[in-house]
């Protein structure tokens, strides 16, 4: 039997991260804030092309869109 | 010839007594008490149990719920999002909700469980679960993108298990 997430073309990592996210959101106020703070990251990146810096993007936002 | 025979007789006599007197350390002792399983429950950011001796662990494996005692057959199990029971000597049983991961039973009565998130049941808010269930149901039955529907279905499965566990 193939799991539903696999049949839909999701990777196991993606499946796990969705399950973990919904578990974090189900917590009471205090542990939820602590758990969400743990995931905070402010990494930014930019592509350099021909000696010029491209647009600066947030890594967190980009990886959510993919 | 005679002296050689005498020497070998002394050697034969000396060997067993020496072996009996010397304290021997064997594998069973190094692995801990024979009736306990050594549990490590680890998350990427925290280890909840670190090689502690417990009596039994009940896990929600993909192949079915199972209880693990000492000297279990070595195996690797994928875990469904669900509740694990940890039965400790004296302290009773503790329950955690895991978001999914793997349990590895090693040959020397060691059990390693890896998960992304694990929280005791009292950390969950039934209201938050109910609100998310309604939202996930709406998305799963709605006309969103295929990606949204798949995600909502995964969330539904987790939330339904969670709601059943909280009752």
TrEMBL record, chain A:
Highest taxon listed in the record's lineage: Eukaryota
MF (Gene Ontology): proton-transporting ATP synthase activity, rotational mechanism
GO BP terms in the entry: proton motive force-driven mitochondrial ATP synthesis
GO cellular component annotations of the record: mitochondrial inner membrane; proton-transporting ATP synthase complex
Gene3D superfamilies per record: ATP synthase, F1 complex, epsilon subunit superfamily, mitochondrial (1.10.1620.20)
InterPro entries reported for this sequence: ATP_synth_F1_esu_mt (IPR006721), ATP_synth_F1_esu_sf_mt (IPR036742)
Classification via Pfam families: ATP-synt_Eps (PF04627)
Family per record: Belongs to the eukaryotic ATPase epsilon family.
Protein name as it appears in the record: Mitochondrial ATP synthase epsilon chain domain-containing protein
UniProtKB/TrEMBL annotation, chain B:
Predominant location: mitochondrion
Compartment(s) where it occurs, according to its Swiss-Prot or TrEMBL record: Mitochondrion inner membrane
Keyword Transit peptide carried by entry: yes
F1F0-ATP synthase subunit delta C-terminal domain segment(s): 124-164
Cited Pfam families: ATP-synt_DE_N (PF02823), ATPD_C_fung (PF21334)
Swiss-Prot/TrEMBL keywords: ATP synthesis, CF(1), Hydrogen ion transport, Ion transport, Membrane, Mitochondrion, Mitochondrion inner membrane, Transit peptide, Transport
GO MF annotation, one: proton-transporting ATP synthase activity, rotational mechanism
Transit peptide is among the record's keywords: yes
GO cellular component: mitochondrial inner membrane; proton-transporting ATP synthase complex
Superkingdom of the organism of origin: Eukaryota
Chain ranges of the ATP synthase F1 complex delta/epsilon subunit N-terminal domain: 38-109
Family of this protein: Belongs to the ATPase epsilon chain family.
Protein name per UniProt: ATP synthase subunit delta, mitochondrial
Organism of origin: Tuber magnatum (white Piedmont truffle)
Taxonomy of the source species: Eukaryota, Fungi, Dikarya, Ascomycota, Pezizomycotina
């Amino acid at each position: 039997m193939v799991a539903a997430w696999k049949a839909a073309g999701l990777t196991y990592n993606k499946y796990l991260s969705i399950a973990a996210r919904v578990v974090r959101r189900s917590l009471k106020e205090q542990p939820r804030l602590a758990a969400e703070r743990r995931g905070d990251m402010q990494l930014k990146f930019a592509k350099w092309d021909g000696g010029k810096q491209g647009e600066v993007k947030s890594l967190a936002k980009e990886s959510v869109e993919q | 010839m005679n002296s050689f025979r005498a020497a070998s007789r002394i050697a034969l006599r000396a060997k067993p007594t020496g072996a009996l007197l010397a304290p021997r350390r064997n594998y069973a002792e190094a692995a801990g008490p024979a009736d306990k399983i050594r549990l490590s429950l680890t998350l990427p950011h925290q280890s909840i149990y670190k090689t502690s001796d417990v009596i039994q662990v009940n896990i929600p494996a993909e192949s079915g719920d199972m209880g693990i005692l000492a000297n279990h057959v070595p195996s690797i199990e994928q875990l469904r999002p669900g509740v694990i029971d940890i039965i400790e000597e004296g302290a009773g049983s503790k329950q955690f909700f895991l978001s999914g991961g793997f349990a590895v039973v090693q040959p020397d009565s060691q059990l390693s469980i890896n998960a992304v998130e694990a929280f005791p049941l009292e950390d969950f808010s039934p209201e938050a679960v109910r609100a998310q269930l309604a939202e996930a149901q709406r998305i799963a039955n709605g006309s969103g993108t295929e990606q949204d529907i798949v995600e909502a279905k995964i969330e539904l499965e987790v939330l339904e298990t969670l709601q059943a566990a909280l009752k």
